[in-house]
RNA sequence: UGGGCCGUCGCCAAGUGGUAAGGCACCGGAUUUUGAUUCCGGCAUUCCUAGGUUCGAUCCCUAGCGGCCCAGCCA
């Protein structure tokens, strides 16, 4: 990807520092290999974007590679549909996965034989307690656990049982393979954690070949080692799993299955954003209970939603650079992400004219059949992008908010007897207006000063502060525009509001912004109707809009508002 | 509560025993035919608190305080 603008030097953060140190000491001979390992049980969200840019970005920076790996060890939750969707999102962000695409399920055979090796080394045993018994004997945060009565089974018996587990002789839950570590460990993850469970379920890739499946803690570190990952980056909640990660790998290395150095797990803080939720559970709930229109609803913090909203890969890249990487819990304001999208879109979205709330303006001294050719630059900072002709005629559409009968102090748009410039056209003077019985303005009248046409000599001699956009009523195209706002009305959905009674428990759904979606009928420059779906434009003085990826067509143009322009006046 | 991690400007975030980078936001001012963009300037005597060590501490020590994570046969 190229990021011509705002391309600061890569921010320094502790992981990059560590990689540099490893390179300096030649720990890996200069090799840098990372991985992005989602479970294919849902769609990717904004948080994943942070991880994707970190993993793929860091690898690229050091001429290394980043593996795309699907952590598919739980057949009851995973589906091919998610694999496809995730791949699509990663590609959309700009990364190629074709040369390094992996599935944990492809390692089932090795994972299994290493597990036998663990048993043979006396490091694992088959437990025949049920789930409740295991929970009861695990202890608590303050109390140590107690050994399983099956913990001292012989290696032979463990091996026999494990093989029969694999052969399908037992029902789900009848037995489980556990690591033999320490039931008294202050780190609960080390109290003989599960390695393999019985699951008679169809796997989306391995089919019915297996009825035992490895647990994350075991499968992940082994997969990393198998792929020669050097730096295994994950979020903070896995910090207390790191001793386990190392425990498995050390024992497998001792048994001769891996050579040292062993891959290293490094944790960083996950993304937290205001005015949204990023937990998979809550996202699923939003979709399933129809609080949004699916995973690709433009208000969703999913990458599919972002794309439909008009957010850009380059904007996400800018965002991840801006927020940095660290281990401290952070809460990033949604406005930071929105600003990044503005910055990116400002750079490369062509400008167009749209009147979102049309009000008729009649130029009384322009002949009915007259067409005045005006020219608007496609990008004010990029003359090389050229200009386009916009016809000016007697009857125009202007923005309703650009005329006020009794304007407040500081307002410098159109008012009775006031002057304003029709952008790229002439200066006009308001000569009157009509109102209906409700007092609503229905039409504004004005006269053109023909000596002031934009671009002509002398047009600069007269300055007016107001500058409004317009569209020829005879040429404009009707369209639908969807105005999206933040999905939640409060910065921390589900958190207590000040003044809440102590016993009140809030649900994040209670904080949904009821006005996060509005649809309106607007007038567009005709070229906007012909634009391809997913094309982004700046509608001058309004914001950035994208032609809807699903619903937009030349016959029925549909644009989504990505983000508004910054607006110092409305404050 | 046992264990682990974290606490530097409104939000992020570097930094190191030698006297607080940077970004975003914000506030001024300039340019501007988008109240946009761009540009210029301003913006932590202070690093959770209190002691201590030191010529010197955000950094080292001690004791507190605050936050996050862990008790799935989920990842």
Short description:
The protein is α/β, with parallel strands linked by helices and 571 residues long. Helix content is 25%, strand content 22%. The chain binds one RNA strand of 75 nucleotides through helix 5, strand 6, helix 7, helix 11 and helix 12.
User: Which quaternary structure do these chains form?
Assistant: single chain
Secondary structure tally: strands: 25
Please tell me what the overall shape is: elongated
The major sheet is characterized as: 7 strands, mixed
Amino- and carboxy-terminal Cα gap = 36 Å
The chain-level structural class is alpha/beta
Major β-sheet strand ordering: 10-23-24-25-21-22-11
**pLDDT averaged residue by residue:** 95
Low-confidence runs: 1-7
Taking all Cα atoms into account, the compactness measure Rg is 31 Å
The percentage of residues in β strands lies in 15-25%
The level of helicity is: 25-40%
Question: Helix segment count?
Answer: 13
Describe the structure.
The protein is an alpha/beta fold. The chain has 13 helices and 25 strands. The protein has helices spanning 14-24, 46-61, 80-92, 108-120, 131-137, 155-167, 216-226, 242-254, 280-288, 303-309, 313-323, 334-348, 526-530; strands at 33-36, 65-70, 101-103, 124-127, 176-179, 194-198, 212-214, 231-235, 264-268, 350-352, 354-355, 358-363, 372-377, 387-392, 395-399, 419-422, 427-435, 441-449, 467-468, 470-472, 477-484, 517-524, 536-539, 543-547, 558-564. The strands form six sheets. It has a seven-stranded mixed beta sheet. Strands 19-16-17-18-12-15-20 form a seven-stranded mixed beta sheet, with no helix packed on it. Helix 2 (46-61) packs across helix 11 (313-323). The longest helix has 16 residues, at 46-61. It is elongated, with a radius of gyration of 31 Å. Residues 1-7 have low confidence and may be disordered. It binds one RNA strand of 75 nucleotides through helix 5, strand 6, helix 7, helix 11 and helix 12.
